[in-house]
Design goal:
Helix content is about 35%, strand content about 25%. With about 180 residues, it is α+β, with helices and mostly antiparallel strands. InterPro entries: OTU_dom (IPR003323), Papain-like_cys_pep_sf (IPR038765), Peptidase_C85-like (IPR050704).
Length: about 180
Amino acid sequence: VQHVPRINGEIPSVDEATLDHQRLLDRLQVYDLVERKVQGDGNCQFRALSDQFYRTTEHHEFVRQQVVKQLKSSPESYEGYVPMAYDDYLEKMSKSGEWGDHVTLQAAADSYGVKIVVITSFKDTCYIEILPNFQRSERVILLSFWAEVHYNSIFPHDIPAYGTRRKKKWRMFRNKNLEPSDEHQ
């Protein structure tokens, strides 16, 4: 199914959101993925993208700037999906705390030249694949989307968290030289 950029829909009721969240957690388990939770301050999509691109959520403002720059540079690619004056949309998306949508995800894929896969809580759509207009990297960005509530960064279960440091173990060899061996803690 080809990705069609869209703005956010209605926020679900508490009951719907609870069911949606459980559906999302079940899907992550099926795909053997784990979430790295990001702050829910209105910047969650950009924080999750920052975590994927830079292994920290702290560059979310820079990611937002890159996305808005992409939206401005190719309005013909995006304005048809925005149900408001495009300049108003650009101004809105420029503001910290403004929720990202599927249009900003497409712009992120295009700006960074990477495929973005979003595991969703939608009943009818397990995941969304967002392809860039020109792919510059084989890297795949993984996000979870608790529709229409929150984005998180996700990783395969077997990849160590980036907070995990490698511990050097020193092994003694016959010539009495010490050589390091990298192992995960």
